[in-house]
Amino acid sequence: MPNEHPKAPAQAPVKPKTIDEYIAGFSPDIQKTLNELRRLIQSEVPEAAEKIAYGMPTFYLKGNLVHFAAFKDHYGFFPAPAGIDAFEKELLPYRTGKGTLRFPLHQPLPWEIIKKIVRFRADENIKKSKKDI
User: In principle, which of 57, 85, 109, 111 could form an S-S bond with 19, CB 3.0–4.6 Å?
Assistant: First the structure.
């Protein structure tokens, strides 16, 4: 049953267990963008695992890599504060919080910036895991 959350159009199931379930709960145009975002992350970091965390699609590589979601008027992208700080000037129009980016729903996503962030976060998690050994 679709979630009746007021901030999401045709929101995913209340507790999706997979990214496929999450994406399937949205209208076709939103699904298209969410799938494109998913494929971009997979292509940049093919070794990352997929899961649902905090109710959102999440990629995991030696720790949470990035989360993403769709809302009423924007896509949320959550790369952790370091992933935003590293590209602060490029991300200024999208930054809304410490670890949060908002991309307007009916505008093209900034794919090149997203690629850079994903790669940065993967490198960051790998380096951090080597320090922990």
Answer: 57
Instruction: Report which of 92, 97, 115, 113 is spatially closest to residue 43, judged by C-alpha positions.
Output: 115
The DSSP result for 47-80, as a single string, is TPEEEEETTEEEEESSSEEEEEEE-SSEEEEE-H
Q: Tokens 């159009």: give the residue.
A: 9
Q: What is the CATH number of domain 19-131?
A: 3.90.1150.200
Which pTM does this prediction carry? 0.86
Confidence of residue 73 (pLDDT cuts 50, 70, 90): very high
Domain ranges of the chain: 19-131
**Residue 100 half-sphere exposure, CB side, CA atoms within 13 Å?**
9
Residue with tokens 């959102």: 56
